[in-house]
Amino acid sequence: MKKITKIGFLLCASVLTFSGCSDNFLDEPVPTEAVAESVVFGSRIGVEAFISGIQRRARAQFERTDAGGVNSLYFARTIKGNDLIHANSWWSFDYANDNREPTYTRTIFSWEFPYYVINQTNTLINGIEVSGLSEIDKVELSAQGKALRAFYYFQLAQEFQLTYAKDPDAVAPPIYTELSLTGNPMSTLREMYKLIVDDLTFAVENLGTDRLGKSYVNVDVANGLLARVYLVMENWSGAEVAARNAYGGDVNASLAPSAYKDGFSDISNPEWIWGLPQTADQSNYYYNAPSAFVDPINPAYNNIYVNKFFSDTFTETDVRNTFRQNPSGVTDFRQIQSTKFVFAFDSDIVLMRTPEMILMEAEAKFRQGDEPGARTLLYALQLNRDTAAVASNNGGSALEEEILLERRKEMYGEFGVEWFDARRLQRGITRTANHRIVLTLEPNDKRFYLKVPQKEIDANDNIDDSVNANR
Predict the structure, then answer these.
(1) Host domain of residue 305
(2) Is residue 172 helix, strand or coil?
(3) Alpha carbon distance 149, 37 (integer Å)
(4) What is the distance, to the nearest Å, from the Cα of residue 142 to the centroid of all Cα atoms in its chain?
(5) What does the alpha-carbon distance between residue 32 and residue 29 come to, in Å, rounded to a whole number?
(6) Mean pLDDT score of the chain
(7) pLDDT tens by residue, 40-52
(8) Distance (Å, rounded) from C-alpha 345 to C-alpha 137?
(9) Of 87, 253, 301, 361, which has the fewest CB atoms closer than 10 Å, so is most exposed?
């Protein structure tokens, strides 16, 4: 009999542990490492403190520099493509697209970290259900929990199987909606995406715009997440509506081009819909990707460079042109640096911005045959970023490529947009010859996803070694 030890789905139901949340809501002394269930779910402020703990864990270290927090998931995807070039040190194996075996840290972390947070969200959702909170509080707080649960299941779906559109019935990681001492069998993408969509739909229907801060989920965040999910599922009409609702439908009112060069280090940036704040007493220090790895002015590692072929697609008048020649004078892959991200111990982490929503709406319009509508949105964004921009007359595949390039130009370094798009559209990635490691990812290449961790196979009676056959 296998012994279940995996942190992803084990937690004593009678005691809730969390870090990074304030304890000033407690009326009586409690153990320093645990808070009783009755205290957490006895009031709205207790539940909100628990949510704060979940979000603190989302940016805290889990294992090591390249395996800690949502940002490390995103950054591993970022450097698997062609637009950025990795020099050395952390994330080297991700850059080589050779970090997917069952015993590797990337594979283990990308499985255990989402399940750890999913376990917390299940505790949250189920605890709220049986609490004495008002019905209004129950619905709203559960909606936050379900949105977070959906977000982490979406990460698992991205990491451990090819895209939904290729085969909805392909095997996917197990699903848990309750605390469990038994490992569940593998699911399918269809089953996992149904839960994701159900959770996010509930969140959209039951959340408003108010929230405690930008690290918390509100209706805009929930809509943004739903738009991303629908984009992967190729539900273009759903993606269009959700994306437009996420940013409000007014392009210029939702953008602040002058803030683009502020260093992507401050969650108060008006374009940020969702982010993770850093404070001096809760800093990730030099672990903070992407800023610690990209910023050449205030460097920590400074080992990520920009592909010259990519930087050359930006005009001089584009506010997003944050590139500079390496002052060392090198002309190899280290030639171009970016100052998009400013590194400091309290640099905040971006998770979602309004330009992504605008470009998702534009793509969704294009996919549904509304090319004039897609061009109008695309030009509105381009003109906001570059006052010298000229409206495109492209149609068909040329317009599609223009939209996808604009996504890369707008969001490089943030969440792995190049990898995300190549994967969902089954397009592959071909690196140019100036890369330190030149490679090609074919459409639906196995390197777009990871193998199931050996730790899970050893611990779960319902999964055996055959799960990794032909992966």
Answers:
(1) 15-468
(2) strand
(3) 20
(4) 21
(5) 9
(6) 91
(7) 999 999 999 999 9
(8) 35
(9) 253
